[in-house]
Amino acid sequence: MKGNETVISVRHLTCGYDDTVIVDDASFDISKGEVFIILGGSGCGKSTLLKNMIGLIPPISGEVWFGDQELTSATGKRRDAIIRKFGVMYQMGALFGSMSLLQNVMLPLEEFTDLPGEAREIVAKSKLAMVDLENAVYKMPAALSGGMKKRAAIARAMALDPGILFLDEPGAGLDPISSAALDELILDLSRNLGITFVIVTHELESIYAIADRVIMLDKDVKSIVAEGDPKKLRDTSDNQFVKRFFHRRPGLTPDGQTP
Amino acid sequence: MTTSIHDTATISVTADKNALRVALGGRLDAAGTASIWRSAVDSVRSAAFSSLEADCGDVTYMDGAGVALLVRLRDLAAEKSGSITLARLRPEDEKLVSLTWDIELPKWDRADKERRGLAVAVGEATGELWKASRQMIAFVGESFALLCQAMLRPGQVRWKDVLLSCLNVGVESLFIIVLIGFLMGLIMSFQSAVSLQRFGGEIFVPNMLGLVMFREMGPLVTSILLAARSGSAFAAEIGTMKINEELDALTTMGLSPMKFLVVPKLLATMMMVLMMTMFFNLASLVGGAVVMLSMGYPLVTFTSRVFSYLDYGDFWGGMSKALVFSFLVAGVGCLRGIQTRTGASAVGLSTTSAVVSGIILIAFADGIFAMAFYYLGI
Predict the structure, then answer these.
(1) Fewer beta carbons within 10 Å, N or C terminal of chain A?
(2) Chain B: residues touching A (Cβ < 8 Å)
(3) According to the per-residue pLDDT averaged within each range, which of A170-179, A234-243, B45-54 is highest?
(4) What pLDDT shows up at residue B3?
(5) Would you give the DSSP letter of residue B1?
């Protein structure tokens, strides 16, 4: 279901905290239905970039366009309308601990739609069924495993049927089976529903399995050092950092050689 | 029957003998579906049929809300033992529907939540109370033993942490202690002076104030302030550490959380509470002096009356009370922190419980002190 329609366009985005620039002048486009992955080593600003893209942190400069609307300068109702276009899954799931899974997923439906109670319940249950949690809808988040929490968080992010899902490290802390199941779910949702995924991760296996396109950030360059198909980058890139990343090699030795 | 309630979603229901045809059209998103939900459900529920056809030929857009409507119609058909067919679904909608159509969504089973009988509830509550009391007694015992150990081997105590806690508990609370002490002294003197003035007895205000403050109010109010300010902070700090598994980390490193976290806090609180009580007493005397000065008595009358009536027994009695209260308040704060369960609301519950239990313990201990002092003649 991949089209040429650009759904997110990041223009000259510079982000960081206070005066510290972490990612400098990043520009890229994401098309509808694409599984787009932001890659990089620890501390290179992947999560910071993501938080800037979803408007949690104002960027130092630059723009983030969702369709024909710009997020960073938008305020009030206009901003709310843009934010409703996407759902976000946070690294630890961020489910509300005092609510059952069903209530967690129903919360955005209660707040933003006029659907009657029984309708909200069916919608929330079907979202949870989509992530294979139909037998856990009445459970509290504390009673779930890490993988289940992440899947439930995806269900909550999908509650309002957004066209775009942002996932922050979906595979982190999961066993290989759960991680593979999550990859399958992402592919499934992307193919069947045409959802655009923007994923921050550094799990190589997942990257090869699901990515249509990746960008790679480097801590030293503070910007995007590579962009494209992950397998092609692995096999053909000349960039030392990209090579080391895909071939899992530690840092350069003092004389500038890879060990 | 044809109804078009919303300009973005439409529904028309036609009955043909035993077959009911529900034609849906337009945008079946959350807003559209919400507008036709009631009429769709009502008309299907009130109709008699053996087969239901949901015709989605005119649907231009469908998302989770639209699917929910189809699922609801299916359930309604099942209630009437009728069959349902989905007609003219667009291919993309078919994919969406197929993701959840075959999964049976769970129903809330009320029988799951069985009602407990009174006897069971009382039994459980008693068990809880018994458990809580045991934990409290064990905790008091353990911290008392550890405190004795700290006295015998002062080298083992983490004095840096003690100093930090002293700053937090004592120095930073100086302002509120002095303020409340001054105000209480002022208010009590003023109120009692007004009443005693009628009998020409306002000269006895300093006697009363000194006695009440040094023996009773000083330790009591200081400890309540301590419970509100520091007991809650201990519970929140240790509770957050527990949630972050820092307590487990300490334990697996071979460090006892009691020794590492609780003892420094207890020591600091018990050292600082003596000074805090003294500051409180002093400030309350200043408050009383202000009242007496404003009534035209010289300062020397006030001070001589206060100190001729108070003896060291009153002073040390108050101090020993403050020491015990502070042990209870700091201890219960730490205990509630250690007992914190998981979840975001757990720390809040712990801090609340730390303050409430702290104040209850103070009240109990004060009662015991009052009786003991009475029989000992102090």
Answers:
(1) C
(2) 29-31, 33-35, 37-38, 41, 63-65, 67-69, 71-72, 92, 95-96, 99-100, 103-106, 108, 342-345
(3) B45-54
(4) 43
(5) -
Residue range(s) of every CATH 3.30.750.24 domain in chain B: 2-107
CB contact under 8 A, A134 and B68: no
Q: Show residues of chain A in contact with B105, CB under 8 Å.
A: 122, 125-126, 129, 134
The pLDDT assigned to A231 comes to 83
CATH classification for the domain delimited by B2-107, as one of 3.40.50.150, 3.40.630.30, 1.10.10.10, 3.30.750.24: 3.30.750.24
When pLDDT is averaged across residues B279-288 and rounded to a whole number, the result is: 96
Record: contact A161-B64, CB cut-off 8 A: yes
Size of interface A-B (CB pairs under 8 A): 87
Using a CB-CB distance cutoff of 8 angstroms, which residues of chain B are in contact with residue A97?
342-345
pLDDT at A254 over 70: no
Residues on chain A touching B91 (C-beta within 8 angstroms): none
Cβ contact, residue pair B68, A159, below 8 Å: no
